Amino acid sequence: MTIQEAMNKAAKGGYHINGSDGVETYYSGANSEFSLWTRKDNDSSFMVAMEGTFLDPGFWSALGRALGYGKEQCEGKLTLSSSRGNAIYKEVDWAEYMMVRFIDHLAEGKTLASFFAGLPFPAAAGKQG
Fold it and tell me: What share of the chain is helix, strand, coil (3-state, %, to 5)?
């Protein structure tokens, strides 16, 4: 999956942002660096950096919906451990799990594109285009 495909799927899954003044917008497309949103009141457009979009939990929830992952599905458990040996376990849904994986991916020095290229998604979602 490319960054553009991920953004298109998230938009189909309900991802939406409004203008900085709260005016409603509609999604107009994306490339690997920016998404384009158009204001409904005057048809002017503005761009949003993809990095900011990927830090929005709403993006991951919408992408999960578009790919067929429900909020009720537990993707796994995140483990946070300290150097003292203490650990916290938390069950998370697909959206939260993928957002944490995304941030870890970047922290390892990898790229946005390489994360989405390896993004797992259900076979049924892949057939929907």
Answer: 40, 25, 35
Task: Please tell me the distance from the alpha carbon of residue 107 to that of residue 6, in angstroms, as a whole number.
Answer: 20
Q: How far apart, in whole angstroms, are the C-alpha atoms of residue 19 and residue 58?
A: 16
Pairwise CA distance, residues 4 & 24, whole Å? 22
- Tell me the residue type at 119: L
CB 2 within 8 A of CB 116: yes
Tell me the pTM.
Answer: 0.79
Q: How far is C-alpha 14 from the geometric centre of its chain's CA atoms?
A: 11
What sign does the dihedral 20-48-53-24 (CA atoms) show? positive
Q: How many residues does the chain have?
A: 129
Weakest mean pLDDT among 8-12, 29-33, 58-62, 121-125? 121-125
